[in-house]
Amino acid sequence: MTCPVCGTNVPDGVQFCPGCGTPVQQQGMPNQQQMNYGQQGMPNQQMNNGQPMNGFQAFGQQIFAQPTNQVYDMPMNWYKFLIFFALFFSAVMNIINGISTMAGAQYGGAFGASFVYAVFPGMRVLDILFGICCFGVSALDIVTRMKLAAFKKDGPKFITFIYLVNMALTILYVLIASIVIKTFAGSANLIINIAVSIGMIIANKIYFDKRAHMFVN
What we know:
The chain is an all-alpha fold. The protein contains seven helices and two strands, in the order H-E-E-H-H-H-H-H-H. The protein has helices spanning 32-40, 55-65, 77-103, 110-119, 121-149, 155-181, 188-209; strands spanning 46-48, 51-53. Helix 5 runs antiparallel to helix 6 (155-181) and helix 6 runs antiparallel to helix 7. It starts with 31 loop residues before the first helix and ends in an 8-residue tail after the last helix. The relative contact order is 0.10.
């Protein structure tokens, strides 16, 4: 169906618009308000402590019994940025990073790579393994994007998992490379990347925890 607010196409079974986050009603699935109004027209069908209630009493009791603490109209700009750009971009960059690492481009070209691999043969194996891991993270980006777009319950957890995997791979690469070349292979950028990853994990958890009621599929 089409979202009545922003016009975005909503897949079957999805309860919230992926474009604006508005609750949508799929065909064949009456909402709570429709059920309440339907029951309003059936007096003396509900009981209160063994006594029949008229339609007005039943309707009033149902209305006040409805939960009022759920907020659905929350900003979804970051969510849309993730599913329409960030995760696709990350997938492409991980593929490029994997190819360049396996080719030794980080050593300044073919000559630099040949020199490093001649002196430290273990670096060739490490770079190949790291490149393969980058391809795996790229696939994880796409899987996460699909889960978020379908409002899957575990979608937000996959965002956290991606940052943890990237951070772990970077640290592991630096540690192994330091052992191979017998000197610290990291730089100040390593600390910055770790700090950014931790910050993004915290920010995304806060963001998606506030919208947990939307990810129920």
